[in-house]
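To: structure subgroup
Subject: Chain for Friday's discussion

All,

I'm putting the inputs and outputs inline so they're searchable in the archive.
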Amino acid sequence: MALITKKPRGTEDVLPRDSYRWQFLEDIFRKEAKTYGYREIRTPVFEHTELFERGVGDTTDVVQKEMYTFTTKGGDSITLRPEGTAGAARALLEHGLFNDPLPIKNYYLTSCYRYEKPQAGRMREFHQFGMECYGTNNPAADAEMITAAKAIFDRLQIRDLRLEINSIGCPACRAEYHKALKEYFSAYRDELCDDCRDRLERNPMRLLDCKVAHDHQIAEGAPTVLDYLCDECREHFDGVKAYLDANGVAYTVNPKIVRGLDYYTKTVFEFISGDIGAQSTVCGGGRYDGLLEELGGNAMPALGFALGIERLLMLLEAQGVRIPEPETCGIFIASMGDKAHRAASALTTALRSAGIQAEFDVVGRGLRAQMKYADKLNAKYSVVLGDNEIEQGSAKLKNMRTGEQHDISLDIDAFIEEFVRLDIDTLLTPVLEEADGAITE
């Protein structure tokens, strides 16, 4: 049989045998976000193209080269979201969330789309978790945002993760920095790639983020932004470092960090690992105090971060961090004969209603094949129902791991009560409560 088609290049299927790993991480993200007072926001997978041209920046590689943009039948230019912040900011403005008590704290779990060469940790469809805070320019908020990201990595027991921070200033002091960059790079104009020659006139800071090896070498000798910060930006950056110190968060100041999106101002930061090859940045973020105004709203300071879920999964695997597999079957009800099969169906439904993971045969297997299937499901307990068990109103509950057996009533309420007494762990509980602390190397 020939398949009609296969998945598009740069995308991946998350199969049932792997989805529990994603769910585990998502539960951790949500728990940490809730701890910090954040609530979820969900935005459309596509937006009007102008949102990203204005928000992300028309001189960035994302906008110039990587966006999936198409024209609708009505003539509108639409783009699949390449990142999560612009859409979340648009929603905040459109629905007047800026009228809520400040600060406004939102988080998102979202898919993003960028057209680029697929490679490990860089896919055309990828997924991000992000946290965003609006309505405060206090450096304590910057440190809190960084600490929130670190809390996720600490909970996952990730090792050797390096935090690098920088300040890229405000529009006022950055104008002076742009002049210095133009002067420096102009001496190398003929050696720069075509993109960087264009960036030199339009947005010289983008040259610092060029991926061409020769241009990257030239950028190593460029002036650093920290030498051009105005007093306000320098005081803010000093405040961020002071709050990080107060929270015991180790960091390195890296004046070369500029991030790849134009909306950033002042604080920028990255969490970097040496265990996943070239795509070493696991999480990045910073301030974007001018974004809401750029999108047509009133000025409001803002900041946030996003982390790539695929890269995080790569890092966990590289470091040998094991995400515990969830229980798939607490009890399997095997049966022989139509009457017993109907009883097995009713009992399974009742167990599920009580929050217990229960299965019975819906294929029509013989008893021996049913028990083999129970083994494949890794069922913790099993019960076999036949005419004798139905007539007696009781059966044998078998622990599939120890072989121990107990008499158990087939009265549904009594069955559930006795089963829960014997194995309270079979009740469904949130994966975090089951596995928190169970991550092992």
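Points worth raising on Friday:
The first helix runs from residue 16 to 35.
The chain has a mean pLDDT of 91.

D.
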